[in-house]
Amino acid sequence: MNAAAERAGLRVVDNPDDAALALVDLTAPGCGPAVVELLTSLNGPHLTLIALVSPDPRGFAAVDTLRPTDILTHQGLPHELTWRLQRAAERHREREEQARSQTDLALLLELTADYAESSDVEALLHGVTRRLAEQLDIARATLVMLGGGADEGVIVAASDDPGLKDLRIDLARYPEIREVVRTGKPVVMQEAATHPLLGDLERRAVAARGIHAIAALPLPIRGEVRGVLLLRAAGRRRTFSAREIDFLTTVAHATAVALRSASVLQSVQTARLAAEEKAASFKPYQLFFAHVSEGVAILDDKAGVLSLNPSGAQMLDTPANEARGKHLNQITQPLDEGVLMELVTSASRGEARSGVDVVVRTPAGRCLTLSMSAAPLRDEDAATILSFRDVTDARKLEDELRNTKDFLERLIDSSVDAIIAADLKGRIILFNKGAEAMCGYSAAEAQEKLTVLQLYPPGVAQRVMAQIRSPELGGRGRLSLIRQELVHRSGERVPVNMTASIVYEGGRESFSVGIFTDLRDRVQLERKLSDVETRLEESEKSAVIVALAGTAAHELNQPLTSVMGYAELLKRKLKEEDFAWRPVDIIYREAERMAEIVRKIGKITRYETKSYVGAQQILDLDKATSHEE
């Protein structure tokens, strides 16, 4: 299968959701549930099926309900499979292209109808961006109109925020928009995070948001680019195809026609004048915030700065008079403008937000972390009050502490010894990987369900705590190395060496911690050494017995030989009817018996005993010499 797919120019994938074609083997036993699961998956309706069936009527009847694009039998494998896969892939691509074209055409017709019928321009523009984002499965679609200045733009609609409108932006931070304005042609950046059109700051911002591709399409009105349709792809969407760019160009032209007579352009041109008028009526607030140590900015309903107090001006390296009338993004240059705009937008909707960290870059090149709070101002001349303070050093310290904590946790988890900590009620608060391996519980189980009492044999935990508090075994609050046992989840007793201590806070006991070294391997080794020593002792004893037996046999052989010789001489001189013949014969036979015993003693090579009288053991000559026979 893999080879045929490779020859057909296709790639085999593991996840059905990533597939376009599916080869279903209906000859495999019990394949029914797997086929049902495939067809009912999210991608099931979009799959092009090829069925592998047995070459008989029953096999072909099995595919009636599936209605595959093509059918294949084992007789056609493997020569026919490559050709059929190629044809199926071509048909699938044609079907997908037709479906996409029909979808694009349907959306374009809907948008054209909306342009002709809708009288609510703001709702119309938001609907356009929203439907484009849904159709193309992109992170955000935005309509940006050009302001009076060359470096000023206004966001009039965004797909992800129906309330976002008339938001001024600094085009210096959007090189893709400036390029569209300069050339009058679409700009597509497929690898946005590394695209040369973006500067270092913009690349970092794009990478931080997970944006893969950016497309900017011009909105030409009376031969001049007066706006830009800006789209950003993130998540699963990685690029924009040529067909999609053509479709978006058509949508942009249709939108430009709809905006030709709208009032949006006029409101953009007069926005700066309105901000200046509001700033003139805002003087009473300036004196009130002049001596506040935190930065304070008063914003209008378009996030334009009406007032900036001295602390804020010093913090942002921007004179207060220069900040007035500018958009908040221009004077803060946030690394993630989405976070800042969400904070301001929430305040404009009447929701107070506090403690939101925003990373900004000042004109002097300083990178600061500001903790910002925003609240609505119920005043006819202003919409939002924004306060902020510099927490750069505090966040660095928090990061260092967090890194230190992570390092210590990794260090504890990497220890082969078990490290267990518990509070004064016996609840486990630390259970490292070594403890998991030693006791058979996971850290989550130990912390949720166990107490220290369950890790020791009955009564041992209380005795250990008493020893820690005693000054005799290492000093108060410390326990020197002792031998102890833990109870494994299976009930096995695990021998350990342990040390322990009590951690004090302000002179009071806070929690206890123990370090345990698993001795099971050591105990097993000690047992093996003991067995070896025992066998060595037996071997030495056997060697002594063998040496003694050899000596005894050698020393007894000579007198026995003499006894047997003289007994045999006496038997020859006597007749059987003589009185002395029978005693001499008994002497001879018993001497022979003793000689046999001596021969056995001389053949002893190991130490074997048998019971004799009561609990007494004597040497078993037969077993001690049996291996020689």
Automatic annotation (TrEMBL):
> Which PROSITE patterns did the record assign?
PAS
The PAS domain extends over 404-458
Q: Which reaction does it catalyse?
A: ATP + protein L-histidine = ADP + protein N-phospho-L-histidine
Give its E.C. classification number: 2.7.13.3
Matching entries from InterPro entries are given as: Biofilm_reg_signaling, GAF, GAF-like_dom_sf, HisK_dim/P_dom, HisK_dim/P_sf, PAC, PAS, PAS-like_dom_sf
Q: Which NCBIfam families match?
A: sensory_box
Q: What is this protein called?
A: histidine kinase
Task: State the organism named in the record.
Answer: Corallococcus praedator
Origin organism lineage: Bacteria, Pseudomonadati, Myxococcota, Myxococcia, Myxococcales
